[in-house]
Amino acid sequence: MKKTFYILSVLITLSSCKKFLQEEPYNQIALQDIFKDFEGARTVLVGCYDQLKETSYYMRDMSVFADMAGGNIKHARAGNQFQLETYRFQNSPQINNMANFYIDAYNLLYRCNNIIENVQRVADADSSKKNRMLADAYAIKAIVHFDLARVFAQAPGFSAGATHTGVILRKVNTPVIEPRGNPSSVKEVYDELIADAAKAIQYYRNSVDIYDGDTKFWLGENAIKALLSRVHLYNRQWQQTVTYSTELISSNLYPLLSSSNYTTAWRGKAKLSESIFELAFGNRIAGSLGSYYNPLSTTGQLAATDDLFNLFDANDVRGKNTMFISAVKEGKTWFFTKKYLGINDTSNNIRLFRISEVILNRAEAYAELNDLPNALLDLNRIRKRANPSAPDFVSTDKDVVINEILNERRRELCFEGHLFFDLSRRGRSVVRTDCTGANCSITYPDPRYAVPFPIF
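^ thats the sequence. predicted structure below, dont judge the formating
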């Protein structure tokens, strides 16, 4: 009991700190105690999942960033506007909306490395259980390094060979959590995270389940294949994108929602059939991403832009009259996505990987490989699910097909954290018409496609 309390105290301290710790939080005695048995080690690992659900990470900051900067979101109130510096492209080292994400990301890498470096201390776990802990630790490391690079570095295509500045890699732990030294190149960051993802897959294949509850709420081999489908897309490695995407699509484990039940499925609390991995939040109203999109919540202020609505056809099941809820705030009618609104105002899970995205990843990769027939098959599969009466999109022009795939990504994946990153990796300008204030549009290339490192 005392040990459990001690471990939880350490985890809470790590999660809540808003400045980097200057000393190692785990001394050698603490490490020996925490990793002495399976339950102690698993507590640290569950804490890693919990930190992914921090406000600074997927519960808000990381989830909202790309839609805020890309042009899917506008503020539904005049004062106390969330992520205002991001919206205005005015993040600086001193005033930085993503500073807490930066802190928690490196804290999370520290935890993962502690698991990797100390899991063999666990006396009462066989190799299959230890392998599962190693798999999750390498998987989360890959996700975190990727997310850091997406926010704080230009996309791989910014320079030949991706030799431009990336982020500080945390391959192993140092005596302090604060990242020191020089950032690695973007190529080095991607090489490292891809290698970690490959290690995770190998460990998953030689492991057993160690958690309670639905397997979609815990990382696994297929979740990391979905990650690699996305990572290789960003890295312009088209054949690898096709390979990982096809493995998931061909498995038939993640059937697409039908057009008829698309809206109701999002509105419910059950996991989506097409989800590969979800961060589960359970039945609660406050304290999750949904509260920022809920017009009935005191924190609900993230409304959809007309720029987004103008992309939907009238009969698209994802459009304004079906996947959005209207509300009057400060004398004006706004529309809020239903993607995170559960039943009775509870908040839905965060769907980090869906097969819809994987299909669109493959469509874009096919187009880049000049296989337009297969690219169009994937594109139209998503288009016609949303609007069965829509005619097939047809073109023999590669650029036209890619442009439509990007539009479809915006329609299908809006409010799921993709838009700005899609613009950045494709070298496209940000054009926001339904926008107020400074820097509604920025022309690529521009230093503001990478958020500056925060200074503490």
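Strands lie at 73-75, 275-279, 302-304, 324-329, 332-337, 350-354, 430-431, 441-442.
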